[in-house]
């Protein structure tokens, strides 16, 4: 059994931040459960381009408002608390935060925690050492 809190993750290698976003990686590939689980915060007034070519991501918005644009199909979705989106087709997407957005995210395959978005918003596929 694994029990963790976001308080104990804060300020560790599991607490990863970029310009306008922060991701607390609660469960990672090294935990050996087949997925990773993150709390991600997107700051108000920011816009982000992502494309997870190697991962499926499910996102549940628990706080805030914004929009999600599916760049592959030119469709815009309005997001608010309780919205969920699933990137099951590896869609290129733009996320715009009107207010601070806090989301719970699941990745499959799991991320290791060391991935960095490249210039296209892509995470590389990195195998995790379980242990």
From TrEMBL:
Keyword terms, alphabetized: Lyase
Specify the domain of life of the species encoding this protein. Answer: Bacteria
Keyword Lyase assigned to the entry: answer is: yes
- InterPro entries (alphabetical): Ectoine_synth (IPR010462), RmlC-like_jellyroll (IPR014710), RmlC_Cupin_sf (IPR011051)
What is its pathway? Amine and polyamine biosynthesis; ectoine biosynthesis; L-ectoine from L-aspartate 4-semialdehyde: step 3/3
Write down the EC number: 4.2.1.108
EC category name: lyase
Query: Catalysed reaction per UniProt?
Result: (2S)-4-acetamido-2-aminobutanoate = L-ectoine + H2O
What is the purpose of this protein? Catalyzes the circularization of gamma-N-acetyl-alpha,gamma-diaminobutyric acid (ADABA) to ectoine (1,4,5,6-tetrahydro-2-methyl-4-pyrimidine carboxylic acid), which is an excellent osmoprotectant.
> What family does this belong to?
Belongs to the ectoine synthase family.
* Xref: NCBIfam families: PRK13290.1
Please give the name of this protein.
Answer: L-ectoine synthase
Its taxonomic path starts at: Bacteria, Bacillati, Actinomycetota, Actinomycetes, Mycobacteriales
């Amino acid at each position: 059994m694994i029990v963790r809190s976001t308080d104990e993750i804060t300020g560790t290698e599991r607490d990863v931040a970029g310009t306008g976003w922060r991701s607390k990686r609660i469960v990672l590939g090294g935990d050996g459960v087949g997925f990773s689980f993150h709390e991600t915060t997107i700051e108000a007034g920011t816009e982000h381009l992502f494309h997870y070519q190697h991962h499926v991501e499910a996102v549940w918005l628990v706080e805030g408002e914004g929009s999600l644009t599916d760049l592959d199909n030119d469709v815009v979705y309005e997001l608010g608390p309780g919205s969920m989106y699933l990137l099951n087709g590896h869609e290129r997407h733009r996320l715009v935060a009107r207010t601070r957005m806090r989301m719970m995210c699941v990745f499959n395959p799991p991320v290791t925690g060391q991935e960095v978005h490249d210039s296209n918003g892509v995470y590389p596929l990195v195998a995790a050492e379980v242990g």
